[in-house]
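We close this part of the discussion by returning to an individual protein. In the encoding step, the backbone of a single protein was reduced to a row of integers, each denoting a local shape. The sequence in question and its structure tokens are set out directly beneath this paragraph.
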Amino acid sequence: IIMALQAIKYERGSLQLLDQRLLPHEYKYLAVESIARAHQLIKDMVVRGAPAIGVAGALALATDLVANKASGAAFGSVAETEAYIKDALAYLVTSRPTAVNLMDGANKIAAATSAAAGAPGATPASVVEAVVKAAEAYFEEDLCSNKAIGAHGASALVAEVQARGRASKSYDKLCVLTHCNTGSLATSGYGTALGVIRSLHEQGKLEHAYCTETRPYNQGARLTAFELMHDGLPATLVCDSAAAYLMASGKVDAVVVGADRVVATGDTANKIGTYMLAIVAAQHNVPFFVAAPVTTLDPALPNGSHIVIEARPSEEITHFKGTRVVDERVQVWNPSFDVTPASLIAGIITEKGLVPKSGKTFEVARFVRQHDSTRDVPALLPTANGDVPEEGSAAAEAAASGFYALDLESVKDYVAARPNLCKHVGPESSKASWAVREVGDGNINFVFIVEGPSGGVAIKQSLPYIRCVGESWPLTQDRMRLEGTALADEARHTPQHVPALYSYDATMALIVMQYIVPPAIILRKGLCQGLIYPHLADAMSSFMAYNLFNTSSLALDSKVFRRRVVEFTNPEMCELTEAVIFTEPYIPHPNNKHTSPQLDADVAALQADVEAKAAICDLKRKFHSKTDALLHGDLHTGSIMIDHTGVWMIDPEFAMYGPMGFDVGKFHANLMLMLFATHGHERTKPAQKQQYVEQREWLSKCLVDTWTGFERKFLALWNEHAAKQAQENTASPQVLAGANAAQGMDVLRLYQAAFMEELWADTVRFAGAVMIRRLVGIAHVADMNTIEDADVRAGCERRALRFGRELLVQPSKFKDIASIRDMAVAAAAS
């Protein structure tokens, strides 16, 4: 006899997961011996339910560190320990991306890792101990929150049913329908939605529980019915398709379901079939509730259309006990989840109570800010189609105040007036001791660093014009909204490579972000000092691969993709890019500047170069018309912060949907500009000659490693996508190009080869255009400008300018990244 239902068995150094695929016939635990094993078991639904998945991921890492890494003794340094943990967390999150608890757990463990690694006297063992304790605490907290959800939910259901006059036999006992499995098997214990039903039963207020079979994986039939019988609750199992008639028959007083993700509006992703139940419940005036812990709330996503919906294998529908029961010719669509609009939900129940509802949407962001101090939730960023709910307080404050430009004193007043920002800097009473400096060395915005006894924040504010030009060149202040939205988007795919976003203020046209503390510096400054960063290529290739693939039509449903193209429309910033990169350098223009008179003849030749002008026109057309993916838009060495272990991308104010090659090419162009500049630094700084020689060798290697790493990771993501039975209306439909399609892998390889060939050609040409712009256009780079001898500097610039022209006009000369490296090295030394 099974005395207690446990989805997860854990002792320090040992983790076992109950194989829920075998229930109710077999009760078997599988050992989790490694991170890879955990990833596979989560992906294969051995463990399922968003809370249980989050706990399993956290404990899998803890177990791996204790059992496989000797509690830290296997690591040679704190930096190595921290890097291993964060890489493991990033990998685990990819096992079930819809389950927000998995990301929540990863973020909390990552924060504990950073804090432990930065503590005085930190050792690998101390970092591991902190991480293990954080994972164990996450496990314990989930059980406590489940009990609280049950209590709040029971009260909420009784009150709503009484208000609608729907109780079955009396106002004291309810008949409740639930979907999928949200009990002990989906959590650390007790359950969320099933916890509400358990709580009603414990209070003597449950007349009857109905559970759906939950096709096609039958979690309701196999698991929920099993739990209800185990606990002795009065229960009946119904087919999914019978739920509507059940409600029409008056046998259901309320519906309560769980959630895998609840976004800013209250739109909720849950097991497929949930949306259908919500529609039917609305038709029959049956209150429909969602029960989930605060960790499942995700205010970073503005609405349900942004939720990535996983797809399950077609065999779940076409096969029974390993035997195909469906005609082989029929196509299969098997999404794992659907999204229920907030308007159909009567209440969202959490361990902290019910999320407030305003009109047809819920105030998720405000609720999370109030009840989860471990998360920095920014004010909601409105989308292009206007379906993000207005955050009452934020919108009211914005309307009541006017824009003013911050300075070194007023920025302190701004922070001190906002408790959610003070917690990062220090109490308002300590304002006099705060240190402020303006560090915006870019061309467009102002950036303030505010530091106090509790830490610091970075505040970026946009004026209604370009900083380096003045009021004669006006520019939209909406660029801060787009930058904040882009940062939040990048954080979903590469959280380790972007600063945390704390708030966005539309009226003040500013965002407040995590302050990346020293010794981190702007990458360009480090390069000009002759520094080498061996981890740069890996970080950049990951950032570009994960963000470009996951925001592209290769990965996104067509409707979602097209909405996002509109949402990230950025016309004024695109117009600026088009002017300074694709037009002005090729004509006499007052914005242009170059080293004169040394480069006068070179610039005149460029502006008379028919081939170059034709090539840049064609490239501008591509920039106009290609919407491959969400671009950072300004991915150069001045928009990257770096230290000896971390790399962070900043300043995505130019974010827009455009050609992938633009981002990839821009970064490679900046590496090449520094490569050419090393010869000038070497000649003018003889004491550092060997340092720049070694840096040049590293830069040439970094060029190759960045592209090859990007290509490898991008294709790996694509291959993983192709192996799924996902929605077929992406630009890489699995029905044509995937493991489950006829000749699917041959199609995929041919498609990928053609795609990467086109991406490579775009990368080469955009790199050339960016190099030219940085040498003769409006804004130059310190790589060249810090070469004090004008003649030496002009020589480096001339060689780089000619090489950039070759990339732009003759991209076919460069068959691969090795050929670019070899030709760039030779050209720079000529």
About this structure: The radius of gyration is 28 Å. The CA atoms of residues 53 and 710 lie 29 Å apart.
